[in-house]
Design brief:
This protein has 162 residues and is mainly β. The chain has one helix and ten strands, in the order H-E-E-E-E-E-E-E-E-E-E.
Length: 162
């Protein structure tokens, strides 16, 4: 009985592996960080997790910008687009909470993973600030950086580059 079941079970397991591999998708490329840097307007703590759209799934993630721990200087929102290239990534965040001057804005960042350790090598750059669809952005047009990080680390995970 066992000898008859072994070939059947083997074929079944192999079939499941082949079917699973056909439908499996690898990890999405992403940029992550928990960094601090100084700007002309003060120290910024930036925490982000930006995943590229992959295999029919939309881009995802979150960013929090904190300048001085006050409500008026802090904001956060979801990542709505991400593009990973080599050791750098751009991603767009839709500000939804916090500073009223920034809520209603889509902010596009560029981060560069300069290697380990990140301090002194990794950079953050705010490339553009535009109105979110159907919204008003008081901070429209502002760009900042690039800033070299002074604390923490950021990583760009490009699975074709790493």
């Amino acid at each position: 009985m066992q000898r008859k079941l072994l070939p059947i079970v083997s074929v079944l397991v192999l079939s499941l592996l082949v079917v699973g591999a056909a439908f499996a998708s690898g990890p999405a490329e992403k940029a992550t960080g928990d960094v601090g840097f100084d700007t002309p307007w003060g120290w910024v703590d930036l925490v982000f997790d930006a995943h590229e759209a992959w295999d029919g799934r939309p881009a995802k993630g979150w960013l929090s910008w904190d300048r001085g721990g006050t409500y008026a200087s802090s904001w956060s929102g979801p990542v709505v687009a991400t593009n990973v290239v080599d050791n750098w990534a751009t991603f767009t965040v839709r500000a939804m909470y916090g500073n009223p001057a920034v809520v209603g804005c889509d902010l596009t960042f560029k981060v560069v993973d300069g290697g380990e350790p990140g301090v002194g090598y990794d950079t953050v750059n705010l490339l553009s600030v535009v109105h979110s669809p159907g919204d008003y952005c008081a901070a429209y047009g502002q760009i900042q950086g690039p800033y070299t990080i002074d604390a923490g680390n950021l990583q760009v995970h490009n699975y074709g580059y790493d």
